[in-house]
């Protein structure tokens, strides 16, 4: 019985090994741990729904989807720097899209909800839900598309 559990456990994890192996070599970020009540108090209802309850923004060209200023995108919950603006690209999918994350700031979790097998991306510091990663990104760079909710991030403009 114990064996069976281990096999199931390993097979679930082997799917996301590609991503997690990349992660293990990267620098560790300091964990931000709050209770559910503390998150509820710290975030807007919309942020709480997306970041803590794994909600999804409606697809839109608003928010950060078509936003291409120079700067950095931080986690809206804990302020960890997640994405540089030079990783951002126009995907026409209705969500902000990046072809890479800042080293070690994003973790990858197998997500089998909604009848699909996807890889969820979460903030490495606070475990906040960011979105999902897909392999249909720009072929000339990483080939990956970090599909991120506008609500999960906040933009900080680069200083000149
Ligand atoms: Zn965070």
Work out the radius of gyration. Answer: 16 Å
Q: Major sheet, described briefly? A: 6 strands, antiparallel
Distance N to C terminus:
60 Å
State mean pLDDT (0 to 100 scale): 89
- The CATH topology name reads Metal Binding Protein, Guanine Nucleotide Exchange Factor, Chain A
Strands ordered across the widest β-sheet: 3-4-8-7-6-5
- The share of residues in extended strands comes to 25-35%
Q: Look at the structure and name the CATH superfamily.
A: Peptide methionine sulfoxide reductase
Gross morphology: globular
Bin the helical content.
10-25%
> Strand tally, please?
9
Instruction: Indicate how many domains the architecture comprises.
Output: 1
CATH architecture: Beta Complex
In the predicted model, the low-confidence regions spanning at least 5 consecutive residues are: none
Topology pattern, helix = H, strand = E: HHHHEEEEEEEEE
Note the total helix count.
4
In the CATH scheme, the class would be Mainly Beta
Write out the distinct hetero groups bound to the structure: zinc ion
Structural class of the helices, strands and pairings? Answer: alpha+beta
Task: Please sum up the structure shown.
The protein is of the alpha+beta class.
Structure, explained:
- The chain is of the alpha+beta class.
- It has one domain (2-157): Metal Binding Protein, Guanine Nucleotide Exchange Factor, Chain A (Beta Complex).
- It has helices at residues 2-15, 17-24, 36-42, 45-52; strands spanning 71-75, 81-84, 88-89, 97-98, 106-111, 118-123, 129-134, 145-148, 153-157.
- The strands form two sheets. A six-stranded antiparallel sheet has the order 3-4-8-7-6-5. Strands 2-1-9 form a three-stranded antiparallel sheet, with no helix packed on it.
- A hairpin with a 7-residue loop joins strand 3 and strand 4.
- The longest helix is centred in the first third of the chain and has 14 residues, at 2-15.
- It is globular.
- The N and C termini lie far apart (60 Å).
- 29% of the residues are buried.
- The model has no long low-confidence stretch (mean pLDDT 89).
- The site of zinc ion (ZN) has 8 residues, from loops.
